[in-house]
What does this fold into?
Amino acid sequence: MRRTIGLTLIGLAMAGSAHAAGETLNVGMGSADAGKLDPHVATSTPDKGLLHWMFNGLVRIKPGEASPADIEPDIAESWTTSEDGLTWTFTLRQDVDCHGDYGPLDAEDVVFSLNRAADPDISAFADSYAAFESVEATGDHEVTITLKNPVPSLLGLLVPYHGGNIVCKDAVEALGTEFERTPIGTGPFMFEEYQPQQYVKLVANPEYFRGEPQIKEIYYRYIPSDSSRDLAFQSGEIDMIYGKQDQTWVERISEVPGTKVAVMTPGEMSVIHLNMTMPPLDDVRVRRAVAHAIDRNALVEFKGPDVTLAAVSPVPEGNLGYTGDVPTYEFSVEKAKALLAEAGHPDGVTIKAIHTTLPGMLTTMEAVQALLREADINLEIETVEHATFHEQIRKDLSQVTHYAAARFPVADVYLSQFFHSDAIVGKPTAVANFSHCDVADEEIAAARAETDDEKQLELWAEAQRKIMDEVCAVPLVQSLQLWAWKDTLDLGVEVNGSLNLSPPVTEAARFVE
Amino acid sequence: MTAFVLKRLGFAVITLFAVLTIVFFIVRVLPGDPAMAILGDQASQAALNALRARLGLDQPLYVQYVQFLGGVVVGDWGVSMVSGRPVIQEILKVLPATLELTFVSLVLGAAVGIPLGVWSAVRRNKLPDYITRMASLLGLSFPAFVSAVLLLIVFAIQLRWFPVISSGQGTTLSDRLRDLALPAINLGLIMAAYITRVSRSAMLEVLNQDYVRTAHAKGLAFATIIWRHCLRNALIPVVTVVGLYLGILIGNSVLTEIVFNRPGLGKLIIGALNQRDYTMLQGMMVIYTLIVVLVNLITDLTYGLIDPRIKYS
It folds into this structure.
């Protein structure tokens, strides 16, 4: 009896906050604090993870999915496109309201938002909107977008992910620099409060056009220590937890009773870029030898089969435009050694990599190092702190660059950023082409402008084949996104993926008994 | 006394200036910059350059330095390069939480450490002495973040007496204490380990002095000899060490705050370092330097309270 009383008291103490249990969602995120909460400025995973619960786009990817094939209407209820693919006209819903007292959302707000997303002085994503000629309100609830040239996925630019988040013009203008701390959108949840280093609190938007959310409050808590976050989940202080990309994390958190673990796309793809201008990697035979020496199955086994996928193409599986039909290099130490001998290196070669100290990436690279050693390829790894790593690889200092990235899942993005010659590091237009690859420029550019879907897919596939034939890079594995939540939390959708890398919490999410 | 304090404050200004200069240049010599942290790794070179220009990072270093020093003199520490919020506001918002934690841990450390040290010295080479010495060695060698996780597992998960997430923001006293308890115990025990060892050796030295034998000979009560005569004389090295170790305590508080998820300077500095937030790092260094300088001053002034023979001139 005494124990029961004690437990009850503790239970009361725990549940002591404002709302009844079952209406408050506590989320544990793995960062020390909020960064920027302006959707056109925020780039980090922790910030983006929160924003898609507050904002809408003209269109969206069906909640729970991450593929552009699942695009559906959001603020726009329908759209038409001209034959040349250069003019797009969107008809907006008329029942969309901005959070707070900022009134109904109309075409002016959409025009303002998209122009803001394209403004390099404000937006972190302006580059993506370079092909926009104009965005005009052609009616109170009609918006027309005119393009300078066709883009691979216009609808992809309009989902609430990067620049596609629609903000409310009056709010941005009234709040000025405060907007960054007081984001105003149209989504199911509204910004309520920010406590530095503690949490951002969201509340349900009673006017949400898809209906009032059943969850009334969300606390998005910043808990940077992995072990504390796990313990807080275990103790019940948080209901939903951002996971470590690690098989052992999945195994450990699954042991907490009543836990649902979600493995979501898009994955973060690990690729080793081989610098084709630096000997001995300027010889394609050496690059092929490297590809033959890496056993992807062993890497998947090492990283955890539940949380990783083997990668064969430089574009991640699941992306629009991905093909698995590329030249592959089966794992064979003999073939690797033979190729090296043919290239004039019978005693093997030494190649050097500058690498980040981030443990998740470093262990992968150390496994690659061990595999390569079997084939007499000596991979020297010089580790530097993460920011230093990013700076040095962009100065073209590393012969071998291991890069892990998650991108908008259209083939064009990976191909343009990592394999088009415009993106070669050191150039003024540089992005992340560390290998100096230029073998598929033609196909990448042609695919961007191609309006016929079939032909576009074929161009992308051809680009992937050429890149793999030349081995500009060796794709390793895709690490999927991991989250877990209590099984009493029903998100109302099946969760396979999330562009913003956090689970979709929508009007449909609720706690069940 | 006033002259002494003024002179020390004068030195403090020089120290501060030196620290600021060093920090200013070190953070900029480090590779990596805030533009990349803000725009993410997909940003084009052109976009990065544009942002650097907006942040003033494209200016020659000496121009940035002069602007920065000018700002500090008039109390303008700039805005965080990453969050865009004023640095001083960000720091002052969380500083009280760190000070509260450090102060309580210090008191806890002294309250446990001094009596244990004295006891251990009096029972030298007996069982209590061995146990105390072992325990304090354990305390010294235990990393703060490991003991923190252990405390959480026992008291927050198994016993459920305390929350895992200590908000440090409770409005009632009992809420605040509940939030503070585990982090303060974690830091306090480490501090106690240091203080125990210093008190023990200081006491041992005093116990062998002639006046102690005299006190025994004239029949003073044992407790009076130990607590009134010996301890007071043994306190000077203890205070010195406490002052010095406060730096270590603040360092450990960074780790403790992160594991217990308390707001404070710890979370701020980790974020600022990772993102190369130059202005924030500079602001934090000013604060840390000020704290260390102030603590040293207070330590020096405490000597006079313990031993009236000490004169400040």
Observations:
- Chain B has a mean pLDDT of 84.
- The two ends of chain B are 7 Å apart (CA to CA).
